[in-house]
Amino acid sequence: MSDWAAIEHAISAATGRAFSIDDRRAALGGDINEAHILGDGERRFFVKTNRPERRDMFEAEAAGLVELRQATLLRVPEPITVDATGELAFIVLEYVPLARPTRESMTRLGEGLAELHGIVATRHGWDRDNTLGPNPQHNARHADWTEFWRENRLAVMLDALAPDYPDVARDGDRLLAVLPDLLSGHKPEASLLHGDLWGGNAGMDEDGRPVIYDPAVYYGDRETDLALTELFGGFSPDFYEAYWGAWPAAAGYREIRRPLYQLHHLLNHARLFGGGYAAQARRVMNQLIARA
After folding, report:
1. Regarding the domain delimited by 3-96, which CATH topology (the fold level of the hierarchy) does it fall under?
2. Which residues lie below 8 Å from residue 136, measured CB to CB, with a gap of 6+?
3. What is the pLDDT of residues 18-45, one digit of tens each?
4. Alpha-helix residue ranges (DSSP H) falling in 79-165
5. Are 179 and 145 in contact (CB under 8 A)?
6. What is the pLDDT of residue 54?
7. Is 137 helix (H, G, I), strand (E, B) or coil?
8. Span 159-174, pLDDT tens digits
9. Smallest Cα–Cα separation from 253: which of 266, 244, 245?
10. How many C-alpha atoms does 30 have within 13 Å on its Cβ side?
11. Dist. CA 120–CA 192, nearest whole Å
């Protein structure tokens, strides 16, 4: 059985309806996976593929999408099935055609994200690990947010970078020492988070409903999602007006926690893309250390 035949079989089994590909086109799937839109003349699906050992990554993505589908104001693609052959792993998703964002859709995205963050858990983390891009993301539960951010986010990134960037690890150790001071008194609820909310992971469907996808789900400080939206751009003033109007920013976000939470993604990008991001991360760390 070829890989495409295996994907046809998996879709047929998952949906209870025979599926035979008569249209296959490449789609944008990011830097990590190959992506295709598959159709049979009546239905279309979005399929991402990778090496067979990446099946766990796709299973975690599917679980994250299911978790996000608790939100009512946002559209989240339905995961159809995850499977693997000897040659590749794949995830099959509901296909959602995207349209160009409008001011109204960005407003609705801000409102929808605020609603998503209102879904809370008793502890920070999640019941399974997943990935941020291709890198492992550790989600062991913690009652204390500072402990979670230190152990599950910053420390693991710094340890991974230490062999190639010892100066980053050295500055990181200094930052970890003052982290309790930087987050002193900050006790956020454990909100349901997208986890990787940059402009490429959000859009609008053809009915104008905001769509989010490609998550790195966990429960934690809602401000982490907002901080990432401000790091790489792609979100309009209408989005922020709607979000902060529904859930105003707390004191210390812009000066302390925004750069602290963006740092996590700069460190991840340093692991993926190298020295420019490492230098940027060092600047942020030293600015935070000076504030502490």
Report:
1. Phosphorylase Kinase; domain 1 (3.30.200)
2. 129, 156
3. 999 999 999 976 678 999 999 999 999 9
4. 103-117, 145-148, 155-161
5. no
6. 96
7. strand
8. 999 999 999 999 999 9
9. 244
10. 17
11. 6
pLDDT in tens, 233-283: 899 999 999 999 999 999 999 999 999 999 999 999 999 998 899 999 999
Residue type, 210: P
196 given a catalytic annotation: yes
201 pLDDT above the threshold of 80 = yes
Label residues 27-63 b or e (16+ Cβ within 10 Å = b): eebeeebebbebbbeeeebbbbbbeeebbbbbbbbbb
Within the chain, strands assigned E span 23-27, 34-39, 44-50, 79-84, 89-94, 98-99, 120-121, 130-132, 135-137, 190-193, 202-205, 210-212, 218-220
CA–CA dist 19, 9 (Å, integer)? 7
Q: Which fold has domain 99-291?
A: Aminoglycoside 3'-phosphotransferase; Chain: A, domain 2 (3.90.1200)
Answer whether 106's CB lies under 8 Å from 77's CB.
no
Catalytic residue among 83, 171, 196, 225: 196
| pTM (whole model) above 0.90 | yes
C-alpha dist (Å) from residue 52 to 63, 87, 97, 132, 145: 18, 6, 28, 18, 35
Task: Indicate the domain borders of the chain.
Answer: 3-96, 99-291
